[in-house]
Design goal:
single chain; seven-stranded parallel sheet; globular; alpha/beta
Length: 323
């Protein structure tokens, strides 16, 4: 079993890598785990791990990654929303161009080896844009308001088309902000959603850039990895119905999360929080409505269960990852 992960030294990828090495995937042990990233913070964790240093926008890097036929590809790499908005050309190249490059490598493999790789694609709730206060469900129009969301939506369409033609076996998961990313520059507009965990756990002051009433969708890295791995188990019968899923999430206000963090780490944490709402962040990450994910839940995708479990999963799971 050869598994390839793009963004292989990223936060989610590091947690996924640990789980793959421990448990395998789709009922099989790994014989090779190839990771692509611009840099790696540590040496390979096992002899089966092969690190490729470079950009996924480089065709030579992708050819190297596919030198041995790939069974499962987890495409996690992206240029985050804030960074992609500042540099349109880079966002287009990384978020859409590189996805097309991976799909072309998959097509070449399928035609040369009669073996289409499975592709688990980390799409984003950004495809919905700013949906207002109606409930999000499978019928909600996708109207991205940032280039990042537009590139993710375009990638979804391409993956479905390549899957239709039999060149890849695509499974698309629309992820919310995943917590709790270790404190480090990330280019994510939603970085405050992770920062609040670390600040209050450490007893440090936290300036919240959205209001107490701001509502958002939450998922821990532990739960995210569970869902990425579950995607590999979907049957062809299920995939014939749909290949794209908006995942179940916890829908919480900042006040609810901060109160739960205070219950976990001490009520004195409440005095450490100051609210200084930013209109742009409030619009993008503070007005997320309820999400009806019954379609995804019906095939086995899950959320963290409760805010208390979210906190436990987020802090414990983040210890496995890097920024």
């Amino acid at each position: 079993m050869h598994v390839l992960i793009t963004g292989g030294d990223g936060f989610v990828a590091c947690a996924l890598q640990q789980r793959l090495l421990a448990d395998g995937v789709a009922g099989q042990k790994l014989t090779r785990l190839t990771l692509i990233d611009r840099r790696f913070a540590a040496e390979p964790a096992a002899s089966a791990v092969h690190q490729i240093i470079g950009s996924i926008t480089d065709p030579a890097i992708l050819e190297q990654a596919f030198a041995q036929p790939v069974d499962i590809l987890f495409h996690l790499a992206s240029l985050p929303g804030g960074a992609a908005e500042k540099d349109f050309a880079a966002g287009l190249e990384v978020n859409l161009g590189a996805t097309l490059g991976l799909l072309e490598q998959a097509r070449k493999q399928a035609q040369q080896h009669a073996h289409a790789p499975m592709m688990i694609f980390s799409s984003s709730i950004a495809v919905y844009g700013e949906p207002g206060q109606q409930t999000i469900d499978d019928a909600t129009p996708m109207q991205p308001h940032l280039s990042y969301g537009a590139h993710k939506l375009a990638s979804e369409i391409l993956i479905k088309d390549y899957s239709r033609r039999g060149w890849v076996d695509g499974r698309i998961l629309r992820l919310p902000g995943i917590v709790a990313r270790p404190p480090a520059p990330s280019g994510l507009l939603s970085a405050f959603m992770s920062e609040v965990f670390w600040r209050l756990a450490a007893g440090e002051r936290f300036v919240c850039p959205v209001s107490r009433e701001a509502t958002a969708w939450w998922m821990s890295v532990h739960c995210c990895v569970d869902n990425l791995l579950h995607a590999t188990t979907l049957s062809q019968e299920q995939l014939a119905q749909r290949r794209d899923y908006t995942l179940p999430v916890l829908h919480l206000s900042m006040a609810q999360l901060i109160d739960a963090l205070a219950q976990t780490y001490g009520t004195d944490r409440l005095a450490l929080v100051e609210y200084a709402p930013n209109a742009q962040l409030e619009a993008g990450f503070g007005r997320q409505p309820p999400l009806d994910a019954r379609t995804a839940q019906a095939v086995g995708f899950t959320h963290d269960g409760s805010v208390a479990q979210l906190i436990r999963n987020a802090i414990a799971g983040a210890g496995a990852g890097s920024a």
